[in-house]
Amino acid sequence: MKRIYFVLAAFMMTAMMFSQGVTTSSIGGKVTDAEGEPLPGATIIAVHVPSGAKYGAATDFDGFYRMSNMRSGGPYTITISYVGFTDFVKNNVNLALGQSSRISVELSESATALEEVVVTGVSNGVFSSSKTGTETNISQRDVATLPAASRSIADFVRITPQAQLTEGNDGFSISLAGQNNRYNAIYIDGAVNNDVFGLAGSGTNGGQTGVNPFSVDAIETFQVNIAPFDVRQSGFSGGSINAITRSGTNEFSGSAYGFLRNQDLSGKTPPDLVGDGEERQKLADYSALTYGVRIGGPIIKDKLFFFVNYERQDDETPQPFNFSNYTGRSSQADIDGLSNFLTTRYNYDPGIFNNNTRTLKSDKLTAKIDWDINQNNKLSLRHSYVKGDNLEARDSGNRNIGFLNGSEEFVTTTNSTALELSSRIGDKFSNNFILGYTTVRDDRDPLGDPFPSVDIQDNDGTITFGAEPFSTANLLNQDVLNITNNFDIYAGRHTITFGVNLEFAKVKNLFFAYN
């Protein structure tokens, strides 16, 4: 009967873990002598070389050890020692996010003729990892070298075989394992960063404007999970995307960068807009500029570190239009006359209609503090601020004329804070606590002065002017609090995890059409 109760308790504990992200890595293994006998009490020290952070453990009676809640990446220097035996030292060890690397060794007695130390758990020269199901890890090297034309999550998720990306007006929609993007979960440093209300095509906070939820230069590594069997990762039927921000190290480092695209770097008029007998023309002047800076380093060497990143995005996207392709019966002189009539009779300027440029302006700021309290306790605090201002310009096409002041202007502001405390309690227990709080403020309004929304049927075409009808009263406020705590018990080769994940969302949505 006790066994039944234990199974029920485990099932209930699993059910409570709605969804959460993984922010750390771990290593484990077994230490034996040359005869294969376990060496209880052997000492394992892992040093994160860039920051000097140390992680320690000792083997149990059966020779097993485990170190969890470690920084992802590296490089690490691993030292395994035991009295009377030659130390084992391994440099340049890198740990993948969310994975447990297995490092098992056979130590040789120092009093005898020394032979090469035997290391087990190695595959193709790399320490084996205990994978947690179908997943893709994007390392810091991948982040630095993969082409990132849009500088968004999509640039890195696309290397996942089960990912399908669809580009829309508000960025990329990410489908994982054939599921709708609304069934994905997105985390930054363990804090929820997906659009919990479900309006954004990209599935990210502020995604309706096309703004990215972070600067790529602030990210250290990604992990995309499709079907994990790690109980800490649950609550989604598509996939989860975990992103970890950079941290400062003992060496000051930084970068300054900029990306520019304009009419000189673009092609001429798209072929489908060129009329009979016309030649393709150079696009009107526009610019798409992104620039930023980051810096990180020590406040107190080996103890306290900082990281700051700022990025500015100022994009213009041309929407070329050739009036000769318009299928309505009105001439360009008729359209100009309509514009003049609205200005003189109603004192309303409908704006232009033949070069309506979409714009996106955004500011992104990420600041992070890491505190290595001691060998057993690590604390990190990160805050991110993202503001986006998007002009979703009404365009003109072969069957429609759209005046610019009938566009929508969308402003979004996201503040996200994540606090993480990782603790090791002796050689048998460890704990990981994450507190995340995110606020999202989306405000959508018509561009220009108030004016009724008007559609004029123009034979095979349509002429549209006036305020955008769905933006007169449209806002969305989201407040998301998530609390995660996982407690690990090490029992030989096994790890038993008890945890809870609580997510609270408060949403206010205002929407009046044709108001």
Task: Explain how this protein is built.
The chain folds into two domains: 2-131, Carboxypeptidase-like, regulatory domain (Immunoglobulin-like, Sandwich); 135-512, no CATH class. 8% of the residues lie in helices and 50% in strands. It has four helices and 30 strands. The strands form six sheets. The chain has a nine-stranded antiparallel sheet with strand order 19-20-21-22-23-25-26-29-30. Strand 27 (454-458) and strand 28 form a beta hairpin. The termini are far apart.
Essential attributes:
515 residues; mainly beta; Immunoglobulin-like; 2 domains; 7-stranded mixed sheet; 4 helices; 30 strands; 8% helix
The number of E-state strands comes to 30
- Uncertain spans, ≥5 residues at pLDDT below 50? 1-18, 121-128
- State the domain count: 2
Described by the principal axes of the CA atoms, the overall outline is elongated
Would you summarize the structure shown here?
With 515 residues, the chain is mainly beta. The chain is built from four helices and 30 strands.
Set out the fold topology.
Blueprint: H1 2-16, E1 25-33, E2 43-48, E3 53-58, E4 64-70, E5 73-81, E6 88-95, E7 100-102, E8 104-107, E9 118-120, E10 122-123, E11 126-130, E12 133-138, H2 140-145, H3 154-157, E13 163-168, E14 171-176, E15 185-188, E16 191-192, E17 219-228, E18 240-245, E19 253-262, E20 287-300, E21 304-317, H4 332-346, E22 358-374, E23 377-392, E24 400-402, E25 408-425, E26 429-446, E27 454-458, E28 461-465, E29 473-491, E30 494-512
Parallel strand pairs: 1-7, 1-8, 15-18, 24-28
Antiparallel strand pairs: 1-4, 2-3, 2-5, 5-6, 7-11, 8-9, 10-11, 12-17, 13-14, 15-16, 17-18, 19-20, 20-21, 21-22, 22-23, 23-25, 25-26, 26-29, 27-28, 29-30
